[in-house]
Design a protein that fits this description.
By secondary structure, the chain is an alpha/beta fold. The protein folds into three domains: about 120 residues, no CATH class; about 290 residues, FAD/NAD(P)-binding domain (3-Layer(bba) Sandwich), CATH 3.50.50; about 150 residues, 3-Layer(bba) Sandwich (FAD/NAD(P)-binding domain). Helix content is about 30%, strand content about 15%. The chain is built from 20 helices and 21 strands. It has a five-stranded parallel beta sheet, with helices on one face. The chain has a five-stranded parallel beta sheet with strand order 8-17-9-10-13, with no helix packed on it. A four-stranded mixed beta sheet has the order 6-5-4-18, with no helix packed on it. The longest helix is centred in the C-terminal third of the chain and has 22 residues. The radius of gyration is 26 Å and the shape is globular.
Amino acid sequence: MNPVDPSALTAAVADANLAVLVSALAHLTGDLTLIDRYPDPRQFDHGRGPGTLAPAEAEAIRAEAVAVLAAPDGPVARSAVDEASLHRIMEFCAGEEVAPEYVPFVEEEANFDGDDRRRFVWRRAPDDAVRRSFRVGIIGAGLGGLCAAIRLEQAGIPYTVFEKNPDVGGTWYENTYPDLRVDVPNHFYSYSFRPNPDWSHYFARRDELADYIETCAKEYGVLPNVRCRTEVLAADFDERRGRWVVQLRDADGTDERVEVDALISAVGMLSRPSIPDLPGLDAFAGPWFHSARWDHDVDLRGRRVAVVGTGASAMQFAPAIAPEVGQLTIFQRSRHWVTPNPNYHRAVTDAEKWLFHHVPYYEGWYRFLNFWNSADRMYPAFRVDPDWPEPERAVSRTNDKLRRIMTTHIERELAARPELVDEVLPDYPALGKRMLQDNGWYRALLRDNVTLVNERIAGVEPDAVVTTSGRSFPADVIVLATGFQPNKYLWPMRITGRGVVLDDLWGEDPRAYLGITVPGFPNLFCVYGPNTNPVVGSVIAVLECQVNYIVKAIGALLEDGYATMECRRDVHDAYNARVDAEHEHLVWRHPRVHSYYNNSKGRVTTNMPWKLLDYWRMTKEPALDDFVLSRRPA
């Protein structure tokens, strides 16, 4: 291992996260006395606020890092650290107890040595002719579809990606509204096998994310197999031949039918905008559009803009457009808990990028810290404590702590107009709906040209929006920030299995085994299917788990000489009974919570009730006993 430039290193460690730096040094050298010197986790911030480390101690850590990493012959590195040592470093980096079963999961997710442990490896490679004759169709070229394509490319299994848009990227291609950015730390919101040390911000904007996705597609050589401007209209399983017949339509309206042996749906959950039924909307004299289909040809400067909705999209674009519009009227459909985040707009310094590039294991431990803080560490706050004395306000002590933190944030931000607090404060427990990051939302509400309307909309007139009380709000432009149709998985495609149409089977109550496979639909696999939206953390971690499972399942078919696999009904039903039973212990089933997580009967159809660790275990290896397997029909 080559030494690094001492002057550059000395400058860079001034910006280092010291808990991550010490973890990297301990991992690199195998010297765990480095972490033993600091037994009190409160000394380090661990990404959760200022620690109590004395300046002299901090400087001593930085000096030791320089001495180790800039040694004349390079740092002395061990070939590997054992599981017990990794566990000790994990607990130090997290600043609290971490269950030892996380070690193998973190080794995969942090990808410390860059060896990509999730890459598919044949147990016994089939004949080339068998492998080449099996073709997979992938619907959608977003993060999930491209991940599947990358893994199939590495396995040498032929595939084609069908993408309705002109380019790859999925939701990060379609959504372009002002100040769109990720709300998960993007050093974790990225493929485990392709970390990006050059993120410009800790929560990257849309264009940078779209560039990252396209870069991955190019680097892994999958673009030649992506058919853009090609929409999947339907797919029918041919029982006689054991293949899927896929109906396509290209940009000029030409229809085509292709056959594949397996079909992977990676269309995403939030891909089809929900347009509310507002009487008079079509007669509105000015332009109107959904935030997911932002019309950049419409000049908002000085105009009266009505925004319908106060969810995640509005939380981002409304503060961005408020300074330039003449009047911004926001119609609040529901109230949301909003968390303060000092890093939400923070840029990654050049020194920090240098550390990600040049300090071994630093980027991996930083990814672990982001995973821990934004994902499984948060899981207890979602669980219901049946003995909690104030169930209307919170579901547990941990949940109530979050409620108090966010309430204080609201009161502080709206101190100039305290009457607004009652207008925005939710009446349901924290985490009952999607947690939102404060993008300057409350400060935007304080602007003289911004009005928050807490009434339902009765209809739209040619130049105004009218509420149920009869109040009229003049408008030149209407922006619908009204979300998507998450319960309509795979819609509007018509997917027909063994004599049943998937949309008819599911209705508003979609279910799948592991969110991936459905009885009656052989060789159909879903990425980001029912009940796989993660509780917290990065959806990419879930997508990688699912792709790992799917590609291993397809690999098993080829290795063992099978043609199709179909999930057993009893396995599917037992799994979904577990999903529903687990959700009864989580905040989303609270009587005051109503969101897109639930269908009209209250069942949670979108979110998975498991920790990321749990789901990783479930999808680690497909159990062929869960399926009915068949040979190729003669």
